[in-house]
Predict the 3D structure of the following.
Amino acid sequence: MEAIEKSGIDELYNKLKSKEMQHLMKIHSEIRKALHLFFTKKMFYEISPVIVAPITDPLNHPVYKASVDYYGFPYGLTQSMIFHKQIALLSYDKVFIFSPNVRLEPVERGSTGRHLAEFTQVDIEMKDVTREHVMDLAEDMFIYTTKEVSETCKEDLEYFGRKLQIPGKPFRRYSYIDEKNRYGNDFDMILSKKEKNPFWIVDIPLMEREFYDREYENKEGILVDMDMYYPEGFGEAISGGEREYEYDKILTRISKKGQTEEQFKYYLEFAKKGLPRTAGFGIGVERLTRYITGFDRIEEVVPFPRIINKFSF
Ligand code: ASN
């Protein structure tokens, strides 16, 4: 451990002094600024992030549990603010959060180049809208941000030899089931490598997703949700969908996933009183920075990455 720490710190010291990091920091900062401006111009309200809470996103893949002792109660570190953002829409109909998430991913995920153990996602949620509406908004957000950053960071992008393509709307859509049948388990990355523009994967089966995305009324086991992918092999960018909001349906979905009411009891108390009907998505800011700058690995693009299974200052 001692040796890892020391070599890690030398490497970090040099990385922070490099010209490369200066360009990266500027681009990252301009990306955050553009995202912030985009949502405030669209009359979204920004709410403060929740970092520790009695309940967080269960996620659909196993992660190590990250918790803190909160005055004697075990609170989880936020894995996503899905429940809090849904509940925030009791007050106002469009919200966004620059939300720090901690996900202690399994060690194997360290090799993907796309995972950090801590990252920020811009998590958005809207009341009384459909998936179509939030997909259209996400496309506008992506186009706005890439345009802004291309202009404000022209020289910085040139430094990395990166020229951004601004895609037209609507982005191409693929059905999850059709593409999985065609290409097998790695279908999403195969498509991400083939495509020249961002694209969507829609209608994700229930067992591949958390309980909170809404199931079609007329297509059992299929959800009204979506992921957006970057082209050139950069992988997943966004995930989101319409949400279950009716108490009984939420209970059914929890049990279909083999989860318990006890796990979600605080959320269920809100659901019993009545949740708004919502849809939304989240986009990882470090992944967007990686795509825009064209780096191989996500830990290269930010000054203090929480690297999976590695000492991180
Ligand atoms: N933010 C995502 C959503 O809105 C959820 C997630 O990050 N797991 O659907």
About this structure: Residues 19-41 form the longest helix (23 residues). The pocket of asparagine is lined by residues 57, 80, 82, 121, 123, 239-241, 280-282 (CB under 6 Å).
